[in-house]
Amino acid sequence: MLILMLGLLGAPGWVFLNYEEQFFLGSNTRAGTWQTDYVYARRGQELLVSQQRERWYLGESKQEYRLVQLTPRTPLFRWVTVVEPAAPGDAPLQPGGSLPPAYAQWTPVQKPAAEFSLDDDEQQQLNELKAAERRCQAKWARFNDRLQRGQAHLLLPPASRRGANTIGCRFNGEVWRDFLPVFEGGRCQQRGAAGVLDWEWNPATRRRFLTLQVAANMRVGNQLRSLHLILPGVRGPGVYVLGPDTAGPHANNGPMLKLGGYQPAADNEDRNEYTSYVSAERPRTRVTITRFDTVARVISGTFEGYLRNPADTARGPLPLREGRFDVRYLLGPGLERR
Q1: pLDDT (average), residues 283-287
Q2: CA–CA separation, 186 vs 167, rounded Å?
Q3: Three-state SS at 40
Q4: Averaged over 258-286, what is the pLDDT?
Q5: Contacts 24+ apart (CB under 8 A), 319-322
Q6: DSSP label of 102
Q7: How far is CA 281 from the centre of its chain?
């Protein structure tokens, strides 16, 4: 037993737990630990993989890469062999690239580590999950193409008061709403609106107040749009006037509604365009809360008014109509601690 322990702790080539941050028992998500991110090939239970880790040097973060061969010795330990050349800081092999000559006869895998398993049944499940993700992406790509061609149109979410996690409006005649197709939890679905209710603090009045935030994203083509409602001082059902509030108890905390659009440039990342429209002092935008249920944690309501582009002072306010939101909100840290 003593010889075995000495071998595990001191024998060259063996790595115990996260010894020198090279290998670990079970799961370790520390940034400084080498993490397997891609599997290139296998021979039986042996794997040729790339690994990466984040190291901090003189206060700066640096990403390091290495190419290694993992050889199992016991169910809990693997021999880690760094494949030369493997200069720290360089990505030694690109996904899909040619294997080093010594591994030419190994069975190619070419999969991200999250999509690979040595267990055949588990690998089949991972393959089916990836196939479902590709079908989801293809489905939304077809719909997105129809949107851009004018053959399909986004509709406003139904007006509801059940916590449907939706928000939408008709701004300057165009529909803005939560519309971000994703593949999550093994399903093809929409990522809806998110709501958070939490305490805010005003140092001038030395008082705290509840603030509701509702946010959502919308992707059409390569343009990403966002909707963000900030409503401080929320107390219950009723009418709330959006700001800016420069002198009231919620100064510098809203209330406001903001619509933003991000358009990446086709030829130069430095020319990306971002446009925002926000509620102004005049003419006002009003929010009407129709349900504020602190038991079910549901807030629903409507909004109408006008928004301006702060960067385009020559253009007047643009109409905002048929706004509605219905979210099952989360509690912020201040309320969670109660």
Answers
A1: 92
A2: 24
A3: strand
A4: 77
A5: 319/171, 319/172, 319/173, 320/169, 320/170, 320/171, 320/257, 320/285, 321/169, 321/170, 321/171, 322/156, 322/168, 322/169, 322/170
A6: G
A7: 33
Half-sphere exposure of 311 (CA within 13 A, CB side): 6
Q: Which helix (H) or strand (E) covers residue 36, if one does?
A: strand 35-43
Q: Which regions of 236-297 does DSSP assign to beta strands (E)? A: 238-241, 256-263, 273-279, 286-293
Cα dihedral across residues 101, 105, 106, 110: positive or negative: positive
Alpha helices in 180-235 (DSSP H): none
238: pLDDT strictly greater than 70: yes
Are the CB atoms for 264 and 286 separated by under 8 Å?
no
Please report, as a single letter, which amino acid is at residue 78: R
Tell me if residue 283 falls in helix, strand or coil: coil
* String of DSSP letters for 306-336: EEE-TT-TTS--EEEEEEEEEEEPEEPHHHH
Tokens of 17: 């737990």
Question: Which pTM was predicted?
Answer: 0.74
Rounded CA-CA distance 299/289 in Å is 7
Q: Beta strand pairing status for 166-171 and 187-190?
A: unpaired
Which of 327, 241, 255, 243 shows the shortest CA–CA distance to 288? 241
Nearest residue to 50 (alpha-carbon basis) of 104, 102, 96: 96
Contact between residue 113 and residue 37 where contact means Cβ atoms under 8 Å apart: yes
Contact 39, 109 (CB under 8 A): yes
The set of residues, in sequence order, having a beta carbon less than 8 Å from that of 128 and lying 6+ positions away, is: none
Partners of 78 in the beta sheet?
A: 72
Q: Is 265 in a helix, a strand, or coil? A: coil
